[in-house]
Amino acid sequence: MSQPRPTVRRRRLASLLVELREGAGKSMDEAAERIGCHKTKISRIENARLGVSLGELRDLLTFYGIDDAAYVEELVGLARRSGERGWTRHLGATFSSYVDHIDYEQTSDYIRSYQPLLIAGLAQTADYARELYRNNPEMMSSSEVDDLVNTRMQRQEILEKSDAPRLTVIQGEAALRTQVGGAAIMKPQLDRLCTLAGRHNIEVQVLPLNSGAHAGLVCAFVVFGFPTPAFSDVVCVEHVTGSLLMETEEETKRYTLAFDSLRSAALSPTASLDLIQQVRHEL
Prior knowledge:
This protein is α/β, with parallel strands linked by helices. Helices cover 48% and strands 13% of the residues. The chain has a seven-stranded mixed β-sheet with strand order 1-7-6-5-2-3-4, with helices on both faces. It is elongated.
């Protein structure tokens, strides 16, 4: 019988423990000696294949020099919930509602995004994102909108890193033609999409309106791939009240196949760039 795949929260805790250990300049052998176990156990914990007891976690955090009580309790709470799967509830305009999604963006090496109606989040300009949030039926305050826009812009910083992930975006033509905020906002937004499409690690394809029936008529989705073999693909589907994160091989395989089908149905990168520039000119 195959081993259960690690949950979202266990993956996140594992990634943080690796980051904290390396930041403290400690080896796996030293961490293992600290809690009285074999190095293999530390490796399995850091690969999200094995949970960590709360006592071991607190001991490791002390060993790594983490003395922020609030942060320690946050990680302990994450460990307590490490067995939970699937749903990330939307808790209002707070960073916490996107924490799993953002963590995947920061740690993945290949992001596949299918967005039929909106410009992909990693490609949105601040003005475009602000217009979307301002028209959210939750009636968020100006400060909440600013927080969310700032968070979105910070998320895009991964595209500027020397080890930036590979990004493939399938953008619905409807997203290009829907005038979010009018021409004044859409022109810079389409320019931003063209700029990104010119980078070596980013590919943008447009799925035209005349494509007919295709594999993406149900919903938008993002597939995250990771460099660590222990971390399998994760699919994120956003909806009105939160995000559905899917991790089982059966689920992720279906979305990967759907994405491949959409790539085949979409215009080539060159033809897609021509269409984006055409729509921009029409504005």
